[in-house]
Amino acid sequence: MDSAIYVIGIGQTPVGEFWDQSLENLSAQAIRQALADADGVSIDAMYVGNLLASAASGQANLGPKIADNAGLHGIEALTVEAGEASGAAALRMAFFALRSGFVRTALVVGVEKYTDMVGSEMEAILAQSGDYDFEGMQGQMPSGQAGLLMRRYLDQYQPKRAALGVLSILAHANGVHNPNAMYRRAISNETYTSAAMVSDPLNIFDSGPYADGAAALILTADAELAEKRGGAKIVVAAGNTAADALALHDRPDALVFSAVTLSVHKALLEANLEMAQMDLFEVWDAFSIYALLSIEACGLAAHGEGWRWLMEHDLSPGGSLPMVTMGGNKARGFPLGAAGVYQAVEATLQLRGQAGKNQVAGAKHALIQALGGPASTVVTHILSKIA
Question: Are 218 and 168 members of one domain?
Fold first, then answer.
């Protein structure tokens, strides 16, 4: 595998509300862990995924700020923004850089400081991942948009309402055993169905809680360097990014996530794999309706039938296609632009066999997917364990 891109270091902070820590403090913690995991390898380039900093923290140009604070002087350091999929997009940029041959080792950092601003101003910032002219300016927030999609799905397909809680309940069950999760308590179906509404019919358990956190990956195209690290060899086998109309009203069908279909299909084609060969799928559960529509768009179920598929399949770490294995955005917490890097770190833990009580036995291929807005931007990666 001459063109393989190896994952040789990972790091992450707990996800939560860290009022007393800065963007660079959180980043440094994740970077130090990743460097230690990679035996202190030198870094050529760093790609930072972030959504909020320029508006909420008054800080743009995060690349040099984070690099300098981490002692990585003189390296290439850039920031990548793709809505909530910013961290996954940063991984995509690192993949390109390594494949080009101009970079030998790359550091990917996803970092978010949601608590740097509170109240209505933050709501307005979050709305920027949608279409400002036709959605944000009219007061449409991400949760309201998800609520409208859920209402349309319920009206159009008449699913059992409890079906939309399957992944939320699973996420909380898996979050119990993730030491970095924001919420480590299981919930029952009764707790889910009786929860307070956020944007009817979307309740608090249908929404990933916005939070602070940082995660980091170190990648290399140098097979000898990966060999020296020892242990399981994990590679980014494929990746793809696809875009759809930013405004939902510009799409032929708001309940069809076309960019998910394109992104997954092309990633599987590149990796020469099929969906049936995936041992786990870290689906994007920022909102439960987004996860449901993504499952349908991936071809796991027909449009309008995803809710039945959820109720009929065991998606636990010991099931047929494990999902949200470390709690997902719902229980791990949703550090927005950093969440895509958390997914990659968690998938690496699974493929290394280091996921503790949430371990997917014999995991060899992991599909991870991040969405910017309601699947306006979709970034899909496949991570694999090789001999």
Answer: no
pTM over 0.70: yes
Does any domain span residue 130? no
- Which residue range is the domain that position 92 belongs to? 6-118+211-233
Output DSSP code: residue 136: G
Give the total number of structural domains in the chain: 2
Q: How do the pLDDT tens digits run along the chain, 387 residues long?
A: 458 999 999 999 999 999 999 999 999 999 999 999 999 999 999 999 999 999 999 999 999 999 999 999 999 999 999 999 999 999 999 999 999 999 999 999 999 999 999 888 888 888 888 898 888 888 889 999 999 999 999 999 999 999 999 999 999 999 999 999 999 999 999 999 999 999 999 999 999 999 999 999 999 999 999 998 888 899 999 999 999 999 999 999 999 999 999 999 999 999 999 999 999 999 999 999 999 999 999 999 999 999 999 999 999 999 999 999 999 999 999 999 999 999 999 999 999 999 999 999 999 999 999 999 999 999 999 999 997
* Total residues belonging to the chain: 387
The string over 271-282, giving b where at least 16 C-beta atoms fall within 10 Å of a residue's C-beta and e elsewhere, is bebeeeebbbbb
And the tokens for 199?
Answer: 């944007």
List the CATH number of the domain containing 73: 3.40.47.10
Write the DSSP string, 100-155: HTS-SEEEEEEEE-GGGS-THHHHHHHGGGS-TTTTGGGT--HHHHHHHHHHHHHH
